[in-house]
């Protein structure tokens, strides 16, 4: 799942650009032919779309695809074969990259012990990159609850040393966009275990990053940085977090017991999968569209980010189905290792820089496969104005919300490498996304076929317009 960070985005937002819909666009710069072409994309997607069945195979035959795992290797082979079978690319190839190899180990166990001595089970899972409990055995200690990293910093050493630090900051549900709430609560997961270790704690327990009230713990990356002492970090489901907080109020001396056997193994070789269609007029100008092939290991990685993967392939297929060859070169990229390292995105940008490539734009789908709304745009105000003029073309398909905002984690490295004119993040209705994000519930049955296929057509429409008109 993409995070909200980018120097380019910061500069764009400083210009105060508003969201743009049909009624607010600049003078139109398109033709009736363009309108008819977009209709072809949506007709093909809704009547003969291939995204849904491609996703079914990826999820149900391969499943969770954590970087470095055998399933990730199977997904690379599947991605290459699927692109070749789609027959819409001039060439399909692999781009090698080294990726981290963290393994979860046996199912994690957590329970609370109060003054009566009987354990109360708690739904937990290891955070990605965490170390195991010492000796892979149960670790029992007292608990200190905090809401923020700053609150932890203010505590005296005696209140922290030898205990679990319990980070219990919930989502801000007053925010309309769940992604903003995710960004606001995320530091406790990313940095909580490292900061707990620095203070002499034995481990960290982190409230899952979601508004949902259930017993599905949400994993996600944690980073130790230069922390001298690494302590285990685990996510608690929201119901478990609420229960632990209540029990602590009644008995501050209770103890938590955690057992995890995760470990980090040596890096392994993996690949980005790339399908390319050479442009008919401007072959040296490149448009990238992509999603990330890896996922967390708790489920099938359907919405995060199997949907983005199949939509990227389908968007290019829809161009060919409409009888078109893009004027600029289009690449569909299935990035490896977005979840716990961004090695694939970095390698793609590094290679683009070495080859002195010109990148007009890049599009990423990594926010789920829900109903289309439009695109987040990272660009200069002048380029944004040109993009905004395409709003009326997208309006009949409810994909015309063009908003300054973050594009995607895997395409962001292109900014420093080859300076693309604009980056785009496919934006869909994300209200349900964080209910299942990074959990065992991210499965194929949660994806709606029509919503998924509409997203691929929306991406094809943007590729078509970028390829025909450019951004200069």
From TrEMBL:
UniProt protein name: Carboxypeptidase Q
InterPro entries given in the database record: CPQ, Peptidase_M28
Residues spanning the signal sequence: 1-23
GO molecular function ontology, one term from the record: carboxypeptidase activity
Ranges of compositional bias, category Polar residues: 209-226
Subcellular location: Endoplasmic reticulum; Golgi apparatus; Lysosome; Secreted
Subunit structure: Homodimer. The monomeric form is inactive while the homodimer is active.
SUPFAM superfamilies referenced in this protein's UniProt entry, alphabetically: Zn-dependent exopeptidases (SSF53187)
Region: Disordered, residue numbers: 209-229
Primary site of residence: endoplasmic reticulum
Taxon lineage: Bacteria, Pseudomonadati, Bacteroidota, Cytophagia, Cytophagales
């Amino acid at each position: 799942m993409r995070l909200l960070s980018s120097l380019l985005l910061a500069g764009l937002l400083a210009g105060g650009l508003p969201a743009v819909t049909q009624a607010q666009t600049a003078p139109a710069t398109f033709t009736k032919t363009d309108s008819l072409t977009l209709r072809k994309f949506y007709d093909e997607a809704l009547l003969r779309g291939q995204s849904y069945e491609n996703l079914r195979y990826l999820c149900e035959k391969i499943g969770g695809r954590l970087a470095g795992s055998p399933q990730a290797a199977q997904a690379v082979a599947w991605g290459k074969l699927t692109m070749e079978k789609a027959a819409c690319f001039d060439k399909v190839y692999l781009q090698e990259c080294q990726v981290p190899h963290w393994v979860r180990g046996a199912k994690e166990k957590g329970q609370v012990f109060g003054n009566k001595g009987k354990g109360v089970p708690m739904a937990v899972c290891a955070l990605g990159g965490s170390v195991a409990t010492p000796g892979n055995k149960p670790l029992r200690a007292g608990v200190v609850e905090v809401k923020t990293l700053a609150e932890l910093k203010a505590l005296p050493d005696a209140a922290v040393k030898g205990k679990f630090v319990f980070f219990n900051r919930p989502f801000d549900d007053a925010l309309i966009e769940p992604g903003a709430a995710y960004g606001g609560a995320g530091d406790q997961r990313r940095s909580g275990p490292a900061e707990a270790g620095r203070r002499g704690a034995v481990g960290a327990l982190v409230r899952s990053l979601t508004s949902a009230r259930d017993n599905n713990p949400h994993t996600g990356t944690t980073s130790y940085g230069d922390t001298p002492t690494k302590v285990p970090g685990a996510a608690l489901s929201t119901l478990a977090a609420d229960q632990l907080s209540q029990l602590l109020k009644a008995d501050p001396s209770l103890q938590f017991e955690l057992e995890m056997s995760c470990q980090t193994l040596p890096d392994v070789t993996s690949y980005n999968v790339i399908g390319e269609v050479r442009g008919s007029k401007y072959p040296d100008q490149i448009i990238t569209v992509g999603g990330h092939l890896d996922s967390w290991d708790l489920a099938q990685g359907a919405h995060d980010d199997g949907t983005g993967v199949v939509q990227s392939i389908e968007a290019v297929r829809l161009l060919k189905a409409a009888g078109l060859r893009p004027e600029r070169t289009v690449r569909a990229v299935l990035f490896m290792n977005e979840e716990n390292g961004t090695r694939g995105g970095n390698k793609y940008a590094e290679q683009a820089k070495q080859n002195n490539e010109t990148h007009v734009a890049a599009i990423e789908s990594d926010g789920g496969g829900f109903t289309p709304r439009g695109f987040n745009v990272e660009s200069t105000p002048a380029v944004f104005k040109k993009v905004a003029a395409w709003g009326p073309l997208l309006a009949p398909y409810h994909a015309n919300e063009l908003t300054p905002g973050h594009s995607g984690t895997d395409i962001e490295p292109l900014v420093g490498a080859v300076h693309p004119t604009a980056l785009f993040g496919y934006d869909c209705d994300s209200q349900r996304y964080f209910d299942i994000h990074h959990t065992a519930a991210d499965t194929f049955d949660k994806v709606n076929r029509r919503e998924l296929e509409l997203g691929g057509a929306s991406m094809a429409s943007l590729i078509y317009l970028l390829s025909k008109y450019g951004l200069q």
